[in-house]
Amino acid sequence: MRKKLITRVQFLTSLCLVIGSLVLTGGIQVAYAATITSASNTLSSQKVSTLANHDIQFTTPTGVASGQTIIITFPADFSIAAAMDFTDIDVLDDTVNVTLAASPTGATWGAVRTSATVITLTNGTSAVVAGSVMRIKVGTNATNQSTGVRQITNTTTAGSKAIAISGTFTDTGTITVNILTDDQVAVTATVDQSLTFSISDNTIGFGSLSASAACFAQGTAGCSATEVEAHNLIVGTNAGSGYSVTLNGNTLTNGAFTVAAIGATNTASSVGAEQFGLRMTASGGAGTVSVPYAAAGFAFDSAALPDQVASATASSANTTYSVRYIANIASNTEAGAYTSTLTYATTANF
After folding, report:
1. Fewer Cβ atoms within 10 A, N terminus or C terminus of the chain?
2. Which are the contacts of 312, defined by CB distance < 8 A and separation ≥ 6?
3. Would you state the pLDDT for residue 194?
4. Listed residue (115, 53, 123, 124) closest to 88, CA to CA
5. In angstroms, how far is CA 97 from the centroid of its own chain?
6. pLDDT digits over 132-148, tens only?
7. 335 CB contacts (<8 Å, ≥6 apart)?
8. d(CA 207, CA 218)
9. Three-state SS for 11?
10. CATH code of the domain in which 240 resides
């Protein structure tokens, strides 16, 4: 009897030694649960009772073996859209999208809405190695196989909410998000209306006119034999529909006598024939010179006064309009002192 007892003790001792040896040498694989790391969840909206996308990321210390599951459990007052399926979900393993379906097959993962608060992912045959970063997109941010159309409704109450990560892949953890009564800030601002308008010189002149040569006005009393800028207009506005610049006034006049206005057609200088007119060029901003004042010749449309000479169709930085005037006379143009008063007006279209 004593001998049998000794033999039994020796057997148990040997068995313990064998099991210990197997564990130490890797003969028996023992899986231990680990805690996920670097866990986060970015929501497209953190406002209560609002549809939102979720972008969940975490590192799995153990990995995900073939056939194992990852279960994402939301607090009870979240609500996953009833029709949500794998088309509303993306799963990435170390930045690489895996193929999803309603159930796993081969290397394809299964992705299903298990309940109003649970999403279950099931690995196919491709193992996720330990230390991999898992990224799970849920909602309209899922765009791999198709663009998602269903989202998750946030909780009806504000505060910190813990989303649980579990499953047969053995790693576990929680990701805390904060739901707010309102996650938006209303920002207001006013941009005051603005209109810039200036005339560089309010007194210009032709000097003495001659029937044998064209004369161009300038800032001094003397006649210029070549075309020269007499003055400029600078116009700019933040009006959404831009602005218009009009011209009003009269041709060169001496009592009952006048120098004939060129008219509504852009016309070249004609020495020896009566002509009074102007033309403009534009630089900077979005403003343009209007017809008939935009071409190389000159015009003065007395019949259309006040006549539009420039405009912009939208808000514009400052445009500089260079204004040039011409006067020609005939040999029988009546002598005397001729004058003209021209009025420029700018209207902003707010």
Report:
1. N
2. 235, 237, 242, 243, 285, 286, 287, 288, 319
3. 98
4. 53
5. 28
6. 999 999 999 999 999 99
7. none
8. 9
9. helix
10. 2.60.40
